[in-house]
């Protein structure tokens, strides 16, 4: 899964769930689009669906500090690589 | 002259009934509950559950006393509402009596409470100990919010109910306000369906903006289960905002049918407000 694939999926989620079209990569989502912590929870559930596995509490906590699209992409990349590493083992 | 005297006597009696009821209410929180709750607080691991039960009993007594002192107000609670367990209950909000009526119905219950109430001495402490959830952004952000969500999940799994008023505040004019989508996200996080409960006529007993109970008008307070949106229903695959819109639509339809079939006074009041929009 490339970063472009992840970005495409996240943009789809933003459009469908939060009615935000093409959010900019480095703007603060809270300030620019009113993205709040309830939205963050919703995003986590969508990320779980996307990855096909549940997130641990620690992983969820990490997501609570996310402010920008780029940070979301970094976060999903990190989760995907963790899962890939776990599968390889 | 006679009608003036009758009005005066009724107003005085209503005032006295109000004082008795609120005095009992406050006595419960300031004296009864602390005395009974303290040992549980010190030695019981699951103090919130104990407090919820005590609070439930206290408010059952409050409404029991209310039934005795205000016999003209009757209560019609649908069996389907009384039987709710492990549910997220979504209600319209028309009076300050709504949350305490719901607490009086369910032994295990929690809700999202305006954060200002948590700053009220004694009462705020009880709210915290009872496991109620503050609505302030500071408490609903970051890991605090995740903790709250996990607590709600455990509470539902233990048979408790979460009741929420998605309008955020009570309606002062009978109209339905826009719904906050928070509770719908919580339902999705907890993988729990939603029970939509329609509350009617609590605002006739305790009108917004007044202090005195309306003790001498015939009234029936009703709670009705108007819809269940189960977690496995196709609607839950829609975005949360769409689920919130669907739930609001169901309440709006109920309000419209209440206007058509309800009592004349309510019809005029709500119709007047809707027409003035």
Task: Return Rg of chain A in Å.
Answer: 13 Å
Radius of gyration of chain B: 19 Å
Query: Mean of residue pLDDT of chain B?
Result: 87
Largest interface: chains, residues each: A-B, 16 and 18 residues
Q: What class, by secondary structure content of chain B? A: alpha/beta
Relative helix content of chain B: 40-55%
- Helix and strand pattern of chain A: HHHHH
CATH classification, class level of chain A = Mainly Alpha
Biggest sheet statistics of chain B = 7 strands, mixed
Q: How many separate helices of chain A?
A: 5
Shape of chain B: globular
Tell me about the largest β-sheet of chain A.
none
Let me know the number of strands of chain A: 0
Mean pLDDT of chain A: 90
What letter string, H or E per element, gives the SSE order of chain B?
HHEHEHEHEHEHEHEHH
The count of strands of chain B amounts to: 7
Name of the CATH superfamily of chain A: ACP-like
Q: What's a quick, concise take on this entry?
A:
The complex is a heterodimer of chains A (89) and B (277). Chain A has 89 residues and is mainly alpha-helical. Chain A has helices at 3-18, 29-33, 37-51, 57-63, 69-88.
Name the descriptors.
heterodimer, A: mainly alpha, Non-ribosomal Peptide Synthetase Peptidyl Carrier Protein, Chain A, 5 helices, 71% helix, B: 277 residues, alpha/beta
Protein architecture, described:
The complex is a heterodimer of chains A (89) and B (277). The two termini of chain A are 19 Å apart. The mean pLDDT of chain A is 90. In chain A, α1 crosses α3 (37-51) and α1 (3-18) crosses α5 (69-88). Chain A is 71% helix and 0% strand. Chain A is globular. Chain A is mostly helical. By secondary structure, chain B is α/β, with parallel strands linked by helices. Chain B is built from 10 helices and 7 strands. The A-B interface holds A 16-19, 36-39, 41-42, 45, 57, 60-61, 64-65 and B 137, 140-143, 145-146, 149-150, 181-182, 185-186, 188-189, 239-241.
